[in-house]
Amino acid sequence: MKKRRKHLAAFFLTAALAAGLAGCGSSGSGNESGKGGGPHIGIIFTQAGLGGNSFNDLALDGVRRAAGELGITYDQVEPKSVADEEIIQDEMASSGEYDLIICVGDEQVDALNNVASVYTEQRFALLDAVSELENVASYSCKAQEGSFMAGALAVLAKQEQMDKRLQDNHTVGFIGGVDNPLINQFAAGYQAGALYADPEVTVLMDYAGGFNDPTTAKTIANTFYEKGADVIFHASGASGMGVFQAAEEKNFISMGVNLNQNSIAPDYIMASMLKKLDTCAYHAIASIVEDTYTGENQLLGLRDGGVDLTLEGSRIQVLDSVKEKLDEIRQAIVNGEIEVPDEL
Prior knowledge:
Blueprint lengths: L1 H16 L7 E6 L9 E5 L10 H16 L2 E7 L2 H14 L4 E5 L4 H10 L5 E4 L8 E6 L1 H17 L11 E6 L4 H17 L4 E6 L6 H13 L4 E5 L4 H11 L2 E6 L10 E7 L1 H13 L7 E4 L6 E4 L9 H15 L10
Parallel strand pairs: 2-3, 2-4, 4-5, 5-6, 6-12, 7-8, 7-9, 9-10, 10-11
Antiparallel strand pairs: 1-3, 11-13
Helix pairs in contact: 1-3, 2-9, 3-4, 5-6, 5-10, 7-8
């Protein structure tokens, strides 16, 4: 395996990297508003690439911020497939040109574990996933904290009868992609936030069974609505589009996740819980600039700007009194006065 990597590295050093990794994906470099002369950073995106306000775009925002504020330079690569990711990781690591190589997303973990175990002197950062290798600093977000805010908002909106579509009951809903520990961080936080605002609330929960099944998610959302849940939060990837479709058809309120999804259906999406990969990327680069890098798992929450809840882009009017309560809840979490569970 090691000989294979060396062969690939030698080949792609001359034939791919110099030509923009044309065989594996598109690449670019930048020093946008940066001073130059600082650390050189490489970032490898998921195969989904850039565009559409994706996780990759958020990570790039963090790198660009670092270029402007910390004087780093960077190269970026968009792999054409998951299989290309290991080749690109290997090529960057073998070149010896990078002070830090940032890999985005869970889909790169297996490849990164292979490559980082060979190039043990190379420093890596992994965003939104975890590796246990000593030369990989993993950055993840405390999804439960942002979800707690979403759960509290769902109940507060009902209590204040902010919208004529909200029923006078104690029922809200959560739809996950799959029943696993990661998604249950969202579920646990949402349920805890709802219970914090209303100890009598019932949080209906179900899973679409995948992250690209809007039909199933829509069916679940319709069922929840029939049971009285008129605010439904999803953590189900592309399956969540089915939740939004159901909200429009049945005229109830939904909530987005990870990115700001409010503009997708601004009359039906009240808020979105954000996972701030831009903050994660910036923190990773700052550790290189400040010489504080350690290959440890970093968890960023509300205190660190790793998660958030945004109302921006929604046309559903949230009362100032509700916003004030949310600010109080946020501060209590930051201060450690509210401990948010990360499992059900």
